[in-house]
Amino acid sequence: MNVEKIIRENKGTILDVRTSREFSGGSVAGSINIPLMEIPERINELKSMKAPLVLCCASGSRSGQAHRFLEQYGIECCDAGSWLNVNYFQSQTQKV
């Protein structure tokens, strides 16, 4: 799965797994915030979101953890690393 292509073509759902405090300090336009620790209890909600889920966080560590966890539930997702990368890819789409 090519993360950059998914973002640029506006496919799937951008899911930010940082804390709500981090998310409120800056985030990708249109992204949804579900902190990593809340993912297990919100699995049904995640299953109903438009796939693939594009996971991001501050550095890529938590999004990687979320990716491994969600794959176990058969949820189509990809680890996009830092939300700043996702923000950059999204901004490139808007220029086209």
Structural account:
By secondary structure, the protein is of the alpha/beta class. It has a single domain (3-14, 29-95), classed as Oxidized Rhodanese, domain 1 (3-Layer(aba) Sandwich). The protein has five helices and four strands, in the order αβαβαβαβα. It has a four-stranded parallel beta sheet with strand order 2-1-3-4. α4 (61-72) links the parallel β3 (53-57) and β4. It starts with a helix and ends with a helix. The model has no long low-confidence stretch (mean pLDDT 94).
State the CATH class. Alpha Beta
Major sheet size, sense and barrel closure:
4 strands, parallel
Poorly predicted ranges: none
Shape: globular
Number of strands: 4
* Strand order, largest beta sheet: 2-1-3-4
The class by helix and strand makeup works out as alpha/beta
CATH level 3 topology: Oxidized Rhodanese, domain 1
Q: Provide mean pLDDT, rounded.
A: 94
